Amino acid sequence: MQVVWKKLAEGQSVPTSRWLAIGFGALSAIGLPLLLALLGWFTELLFGMGGTAAEGGPGGAVRELPSLLTLGNWIRLSTDWLPTGGSTLRCALCLIALIGCVFALERWTLHATRAASLQAALYWTSNLLQRLFDQSRALSMDQGISGQRRILRDLIQTDLPRVRESLTDWYRVFPRNFLQIVLCVALACLIQPWLTLLCILVFIILWGLTNSLDAAYRKQRPVYLERRRHAHEQLIYLCESSPLLESVDARIDTRQMFDRQVDAFHQTHSKLADDGVVRSPWLLSATVLLGAFLLFVISVRVLEPGSPLGVGEIVVLIGCVLVSVNGIFRIRRSLRKRSNAVQAAKAIWSYLAVPVMRVGAAGAPIDANIAKGIRFENVSFRDTDRAKILEDVSIDLTPGKLTAIVSLDAATGQTLGEMILGFGLPASGRILIDNRNLIDLDPISIRQRTLLINERGPILDGSLEDNLWAGTAKDATIDVLDLARRANVAEPILNLSDGLGTVFSSNDERLPLDQLFRLGVVRALIKKPSVVVAHEPRQRVSVQEEQDSLRALELLRSHQTILVVLPERLSTLRRADQILVFKDGKIVAAGTHPQLLEQSEIYRHFNYMRFAISS
Questions:
Q1: Helical packing angle, 88-143 and 16-47, nearest 10°
Q2: How far is CA 354 from CA 137, 139, 157, 351, in A?
Q3: For 10, 38, 129, 281, which has the most beta carbons within 10 A of its beta carbon?
C-alpha cells in the first residue's frame, strides 16, 4: 500500500500546509491530556480530602486551601504558583480560567489542524491534476483525445476525490491521534499503572473480539447476498411458471415450493439487515461483562481503607480511556479509508505511468496543402483501457467533398475526427496523407494544415479579432468582415459593443451557439487549412439559422477543403457528398443520403432515433 503512495509523491515537495498540520496536530494532542489533568486537579480541589476545615466568617467553616493538588504519586500542582491569596474559591476560579484557556487553545489548534490538513490534501490533488493534464496532452498524440475521455472522467470525478478524502483524514489523524494516545496512556499510568494495564487488557480483548466478528461478518455477507439473489430469482420464476409446472405434474405443490423460497428470502434478508458487528449480542454481552468487572475493580480500589484513588483521579482515568479509545477508532477508520483509496491511487499512477511514444518526435513537414487527400487503410484504434473504438476502417477523404460521419456511439466519430487532426496513432493499419504515412510526418505540421470547428467556435480568451486570427499571422489584405458576411455572421459581430474588438472568454454566452460555430468557419476561411473537422451545434434553431450555418460550411467545400462533419442536423446529411455509417467501430454502409435511406437499415434507424424522435 505504501509503495503506491510513494510513487505518487515521487519527486514532489512536501507542502508547508502539511508541516502546519503536523505542528498544530501535535499542539492539539498535548492540549487534551493537559485539559484532563486540569480537570482532575479541579475535581480534587472540590471533592478531595486533602484540605482541613478552618473557621470562617458568617458562613461558618470553609475548606482550607491545600498546598498541593495531586493525581497519583507523580502529577502534582502547587497552589503557591497560582494567585490564590490563600483562598480556595480563588484557586477554583484560577483553575476554571486555565481550563477555559486550554480548552479554547485545544479547539483552535484542532480547527487549524483540520484546515491545514485540507489544504495539504488539496495541494496534492492540484498537483495530481496538473500531472494528469500534462500526461493527457502528451498521450493525445498517441491515444487521441476521445480515447482518454472515459478514463480521465473516472480519474477526476471518482478516484481523485477518494484520494483527497483519504489524505485529508490521514493528515488529521497523524500525528495528532497517535501522540494523543501515547500521552493519555502515559498520564493514566502515572496515576494508576495497574488499573491502566487492566483497562488496556480489557480493550485488547474487546478489540480482538470485534475484529473476529467483523471478519466473520465480511466473509458471510457475500454468501447471503448470493442467497438473496437466488431466492429473488426463484420467487420470480415460481410466480411466472407455477401453472406450467402444475400442468407437467399435478402432484407438484408449487405453493409449498414458493413458501420455502419466501422463508429463504426472509432469513437472508434478516441477516443482511443486521447492523453488523456494532450491535452483535456477543460483543454487547462481552462489553457489559468486562465493563462490570472493570467497575468492580475500581470500586474495590476506591472503597479500600486508605485508598489513594480519589474522585479527580477517576475522572482523569476515565477521560484518558475514552480519548485513547476514540483515537484508536479514528486511526482505524483512517487506515481503512486509506486502504480503500489504494485502488484509486493505483488507477491514477497507472495512467501517469503510461509511456508516451511520440514526445518530441519530429517527422517530415507538410510543405504544401494536402492535394490528394487522406486515406485510412484497415485502421483500428483502442482507447487507454484497450477498449475498441475503431475496427478495420478503410476510407478515402478527398478535397472539395463534405463527408459526414454517422454513428450512434459519439466516441467513434470524435475519435475519427481527432485522428484526422493528427491526434492518436492506429493500433493497426495506417493513415496516409498525400500518400505519406502519418507516423512519418511532423505532428505540428499536421496541426498547421488542419482545423477544428465546434459549436463554441472554439472561442478563446481575448478579443474577437484575435480569436479569428488565432494561429495565423495577421494579413492586412484580408477583409475579416467580408469573410464574416460570406459566413452569415457579420451582423451579429457589428451588433456587439466593440465589434471585432469585443473581448470574449472561452465560456462567453453573448452569442448563440450557431453564430459561434460560424465564427469558427470565418477562422477557417482566414487560415485556409487543408482539412476541417466540424462538429455541428446540438442546439435546435430556426430553419433560417440552420441554413445560414450550412451555407457557411459549404463555403469551405468550395475552397477544396477536406471537410469532415459530425452532423447533428438532417439538412447537413442531405447535402453531404458521402456519408460513412459506423456501428461498433466498423463501417457498415457508405453513400449519399437517398442511397442509404434505401439500402441501409442501420442508417434509417439512426435517422429515426436522431431526428424523428427528437422532433
A1: 160
A2: 12, 8, 20, 5
A3: 38
